[in-house]
């Protein structure tokens, strides 16, 4: 089994929330090294050469993202995204709660690498424990001289601001998150300008995921080549995968990218007794399903994309043959309809309309034509919105309607349906 311990090393064995324990295990060594021996460009170079791709959803290469910041002499900001509300994703708050200093060391390294002196972390409102744990970690790091003014006898100063969200999924989208930090309504901005050019308080800003930043101390310790040599060439490194659904031991498992989906299933204990896996949603709520014939595919960014879906933030949900896909579709559609910020008509109206139609189908009042219309409407919603949330319904809905059409049609062949058409 290819389970590895890199970011998850020591979790469950040691109290890594204690700065003394973290330091005994090599913590903050890379931060000290960076401050005293390395230039920001050295860290950016290692990150670029490692091939690290963002772990927040889009899989954009981290080093390249940093390179878009203009050299305009303006202040710049690093924002760590710990909003983590993607259905099925539960890795970031695990890192925050269990190994907050690793997250903080990563944030500090990223902030230094982009030439910034102010980092923000945006923590989902519900993560009360993670919030308290992280604030305590920042306090301990400040007391140890790792955060604050003129660190370790150098001229470098850095401040860390911890900001809590208020429970809106859309605030995980980077520009909505920036608006929320600024005290505005948490709704996405029109892009361009991208945050790299005009982000927080109008200044150049990088938004990176918790797992992305927590990887940085390991890149510095072991080198870009170590990371780049793991997994497929264009999708290298290790990834924490949140595996859930119809498996015996759901949880966060750290594996090399490229691990076959079938192995992820086995790592999570396999299917329940007497059950067979019939579908897998490999990249969070907005990804299309794959099916039994895809279980030998490698789990990496490009393989998932080549097969019409995505890796996203690394949430893998397995569905067995007991699944009612009409109910599953309604649950997801309801989530997206509820979380729409309402700025775009297709997202605001389409999501609600699909929710009402699915409810009607489930209640036996659906028409045959409703099934085709579900797919058509979700398709018409796609590509017409300010942000990807409006495009999030089609992939799952269309993939399960196509594959499990008989389940959907069985509801409209009910007596109620005959009464309607009689
Ligand atoms: C609706 C929506 C929700 C998102 N939620 C999150 C989130 O909770 N955490 C996250 O890191 N990225 C989230 N993203 C992606 C961010 O916009 C951004 O791409 C990411 O934080 C960049 O980090 P990375 O480059 O390290 O992956 C979301 C995007 C969308 C459209
Ligand atoms: S797509 Fe939906 S969530 Fe995104 S900006 Fe438009 S209305 Fe808001």
Characterise this structure:
- The protein has 422 residues and is α/β, with parallel strands linked by helices.
- The chain folds into three domains: 19-228, NADH-ubiquinone oxidoreductase 51kDa subunit (Rossmann fold, 3-Layer(aba) Sandwich); 241-320, Ubiquitin-like (UB roll) (Roll), CATH 3.10.20; 325-415, NADH-ubiquinone oxidoreductase 51kDa subunit, iron-sulphur binding domain (de novo design (two linked rop proteins), Up-down Bundle).
- It has helices at residues 19-24, 29-37, 40-50, 62-67, 92-98, 100-113, 128-143, 174-181, 210-214, 216-222, 224-228, 261-267, 301-306, 325-339, 345-362, 368-381, 393-403, 405-412, 415-421, and strands spanning 77-82, 118-123, 159-164, 205-209, 238-245, 251-256, 259-260, 277-281, 290-291, 298-299, 315-320.
- The strands form three sheets. It has a five-stranded mixed β-sheet with strand order 6-5-11-8-9, with helices on one face. A four-stranded parallel β-sheet has the order 3-2-1-4, with helices on both faces.
- Helix 3 packs across helix 6 and helix 14 runs antiparallel to helix 17.
- The longest helix is centred in the C-terminal third of the chain and has 18 residues, at 345-362.
- The radius of gyration is 22 Å and the shape is globular.
- Iron/sulfur cluster (SF4) is lined by residues 170, 187-188, 340-344, 347-348, 385-387, 389-390.
């Amino acid at each position: 089994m290819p389970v590895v311990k890199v970011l998850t090393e020591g979790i469950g064995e040691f109290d890594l929330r204690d700065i003394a324990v973290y330091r005994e295990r090599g913590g903050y060594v890379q931060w000290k090294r960076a401050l005293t021996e390395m230039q920001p460009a050295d860290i950016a170079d290692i990150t670029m050469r490692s091939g690290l791709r963002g772990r927040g959803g889009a899989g954009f290469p981290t080093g390249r993202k940093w390179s878009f910041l203009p050299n305009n002499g303006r202040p710049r900001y690093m924002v760590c995204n710990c909003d983590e509300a993607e259905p099925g994703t539960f890795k970031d708050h695990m890192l925050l709660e269990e190994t907050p200093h690793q997250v903080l060391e990563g944030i500090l390294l990223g902030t230094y690498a982009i030439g910034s002196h102010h980092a923000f972390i945006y923590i989902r409102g519900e993560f009360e424990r993670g919030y308290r744990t992280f604030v305590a970690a920042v306090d301990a790091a400040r007391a140890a001289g790792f955060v604050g003014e003129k660190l370790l006898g150098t001229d470098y100063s850095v401040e860390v601001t911890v900001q809590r969200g208020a429970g809106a999924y859309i605030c995980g989208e980077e520009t909505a998150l920036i608006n929320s930090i600024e005290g505005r309504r948490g709704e996405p901005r029109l892009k361009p300008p991208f945050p790299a050019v005009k982000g927080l308080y109008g200044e150049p800003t990088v938004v990176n995921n918790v797992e992305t930043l927590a990887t940085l101390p390991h890149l510095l310790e072991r080198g870009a080549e170590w990371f780049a040599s793991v997994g497929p060439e264009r999708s290298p490194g290790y990834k924490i995968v949140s595996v859930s659904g119809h498996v015996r031991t759901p949880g966060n498992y750290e594996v090399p990218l490229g691990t076959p989906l079938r192995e992820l299933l086995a790592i999570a204990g396999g299917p329940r007794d007497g059950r067979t896996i019939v579908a897998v949603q490999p990249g969070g709520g907005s990804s299309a399903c794959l099916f039994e014939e895809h279980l030998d595919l490698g789990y990496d960014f490009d393989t998932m994309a080549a097969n019409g879906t995505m890796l996203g933030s690394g949430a893998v949900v397995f569905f067995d043959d007991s699944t009612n896909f009409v109910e599953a579709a309604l649950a997801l559609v309801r989530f997206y309809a509820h979380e729409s910020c309402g700025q775009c008509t297709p997202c605001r109206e389409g999501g609600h309309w699909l929710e009402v139609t699915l409810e009607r189908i489930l209640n036996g009042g659906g028409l045959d034509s409703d099934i085709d219309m579900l797919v058509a409407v979700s398709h018409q919603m796609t590509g017409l919105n300010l942000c990807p949330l409006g495009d999030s319904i089609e992939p799952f809905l269309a993939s399960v309607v196509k594959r499990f059409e008989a389940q959907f049609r069985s509801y409209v062949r009910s007596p109620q349906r005959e009464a309607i058409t009689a």
